[in-house]
Design brief:
heterodimer, A: mainly alpha, Fumarate Reductase Iron-sulfur Protein, Chain B, domain 2, 3 domains, two-stranded antiparallel sheet, 12 helices, about 45% helix, B: about 300 residues, Glutathione S-transferase Yfyf (Class Pi), Chain A, domain 2, Rossmann fold, 4-stranded parallel sheet, 8 strands, binds iron/sulfur cluster
Chain lengths: ~240, ~300
């Protein structure tokens, strides 16, 4: 098979010779390049099953690899390795090794929902990408990443501050966690505006859910519970327009 | 004024109780002027936004579900959210509970333990822009204008989650929803105020939202793109309907200007602030004074 010049740099183990003679005929140009034969092993078919058995990943099987998701993806423009279509492909093949190689990309979804919105097959792509990422985290295949650290921090702040979040509580917690936060200049311009309008009182005022401790206890219980694959029997007409 | 939504419950969400206060206050003014009810779900909790769902599946369902249940206790038929992030989270839980009956049973069992009623998946989620547009229409807005904003050039920024994804919001599947790729409801509301809506292709582009803190360079660039597109088309103000995007762009304005050029600086205004201003309310009533950027530098010519 001739290998297009553009693709040569991305092929692992490419051999290009000065002079090649095949069956007495000298070949050159693109016909002159060969790939080292390699067999990839270690495909793990349980990856697909496990992801398809989660609430978020349940639609993974419907994907027909058209690439619509990747072509409009916000993150793709910033990271050429970021491709929801490919993540799905690798997860279904069970190619954990390649997914782990992509660990610095896969967490970067900004949840803009273009992929889910546009998928012609009804795959909830944004959810599936998170489910694949969660699989890697859960099995200890990848380190935690800034996105996940922030998500966990967010939940923690909600739980500890009466079921609500404010810029102050979240900002404080993220500054403590070492996220690049607002500069002094930003803070001055922010509090200036708030002071001027008398809004600062509202923003400072702690606001809580009335019976939060009770709600919190139940939530903590629920968080130990799981959605099981058998819970995912879909209504055939699953989305009804409310009357 | 008649609304196609039946009885409506208003979900403010955390951001409207914080830096988004100017959004809430001005929205209340607009609703009152238009005779639209806006009864708050008073004991609401955080909807989990785009973060909690990534950490824990059940928490991601239950936080929104509790709010939906509270809305049903108020006998509501629809929930109006001003924040597209909340609108999305509530719609997402409704989607999963409708699609998977066993998931709904599980969620409802926990709701009952919390002391809430099980949720029957009968609500319609509505964004504040849709609520105003579908209840009174551009004409209804126009008839209340006391301070026409003729000649004001604005770029309406709807954000990602105002009508995406269609599986959750049903945009494209039902009436009363805006066009998800090229929305126009806010455009028409702003035109009714007399303002000129400039061509603006960044209407539903992402601002980097959930990664505003954790993937800063990308977020800054995404935000700069939105401002650039608005500037290129001659907008004087960026009009928003999303407190997440609004706060992210406003608080990052200095960094954006430093990195991508001072000419990108532009004041931001919540759409409801501009509507209330055009209805004759003062800058302090509409909290135009509370924005981090300074919209009055542009709007003072209408005072
Ligand atoms: S758009 Fe849908 S079907 Fe196409 S590759 Fe992406 S997930 Fe698969
Ligand atoms: S939600 Fe994530 S994966 Fe989907 S288009 Fe946006 S950034 Fe890409």
């Amino acid at each position: 098979m001739p290998i297009p010049n553009l693709e040569k740099p991305i092929i692992k183990g490419l051999i290009e010779k000065e002079k090649v003679v095949v069956d007495g005929v000298e070949v050159d140009g693109t016909w002159n390049a060969f790939m080292i034969e390699r067999t990839q092993t270690g495909y793990d078919p349980s990856v697909w099953d496990e992801i398809a058995g989660t609430l978020e990943g349940a639609t993974i099987s419907a994907c027909w690899q058209c690439g619509t998701c990747t072509s409009g993806c916000t993150m793709r423009e910033y990271d050429p390795k970021y491709s929801p279509r490919r993540f799905i492909d690798l997860a279904r093949k069970g190619d954990k090794e390649s997914l782990v190689e992509l660990q610095n990309s896969i967490w970067r979804c900004v949840s803009c929902q273009k992929c889910t919105h546009r998928c012609p097959k009804g795959v909830l792509v944004e959810e599936v990408v998170h489910s694949i990422h969660n699989y890697l985290l859960k099995h200890g295949l990848v380190q935690s990443d800034p996105g996940t650290v922030f998500d966990e921090l967010f939940l923690d702040v909600v739980m500890k501050n009466g079921g609500r979040i404010s810029e102050l509580t979240l900002g404080g917690a993220s500054a403590k966690a070492g996220f690049v936060s607002l500069s002094l200049r930003d803070l001055i311009s922010m509090s200036g505006a708030l002071l001027k309008s008398g809004l600062i009182k509202d923003v400072m005022k702690p606001s809580r859910v009335k019976d939060w401790d009770k709600v919190k206890t139940v939530l903590e219980d629920a968080m130990k519970d799981e959605i099981k694959p058998e819970d995912l029997q879909a209504n055939i007409r699953y989305q009804v327009v409310p009357q | 004024m008649s609304s196609p939504y039946g009885k409506v419950a208003f979900y403010p969400g955390c951001s409207l109780d914080g830096l988004g206060k100017s959004y809430e206050e001005s929205l209340k003014l607009v609703a009152k002027d238009l005779g639209l009810p806006l009864d708050k779900i008073s004991d609401y909790n955080c909807c989990g936004a785009l973060e909690v769902k990534n950490v824990n599946t059940m928490a991601g369902l239950l936080l929104p579900a509790r709010n939906l249940s509270l809305a049903r206790e108020m006998n509501a038929d629809a929930v109006v959210s001003a924040c597209p992030g909340c609108h999305y989270s509530l719609s997402r839980t409704q989607f999963f509970m409708t699609r998977y009956p066993k998931v709904a049973q599980k969620v409802n069992a926990y709701l009952e333990k919390m002391g809430n009623k099980p949720y029957d998946s009968k609500l319609l989620m509505v964004h504040a822009v849709e609520y105003i547009y579908n209840s009174v229409g551009a004409e209804g807005v126009k008839s209340r204008v006391k301070r026409p904003l003729n000649g004001l050039k604005v770029a309406p920024y709807y954000g990602c989650l105002y009508s995406r994804p269609k599986s959750y919001t049903l945009s494209g599947y039902m009436g009363l929803r805006d066009d998800p790729e090229r929305p126009s409801f806010m455009d028409e509301i702003l035109q009714a105020l007399g303002a000129e809506v400039v061509p603006f292709e960044a209407k539903t582009m992402c601002c980097g939202g959930p990664h505003a803190y954790s993937d800063v360079d990308v977020a800054l660039h995404l935000e700069a793109r939105i401002l650039k597109e608005a500037k290129r088309n001659g907008a004087e103000l960026l009009i928003t309907d999303c407190p997440l995007g609004h706060v992210a762009i406003e608080t990052n304005m200095n960094k954006i200007a430093e990195k991508y050029g001072e000419d990108l600086r532009m004041p931001l205004v919540y759409f409801s602030q501009l509507v209330a201003f055009a209805f004759g309310h003062s800058p302090s009533e509409t909290l135009l004074t509370a924005n981090i950027t300074d919209p009055l530098s542009v709007l003072k010519r209408f005072l």
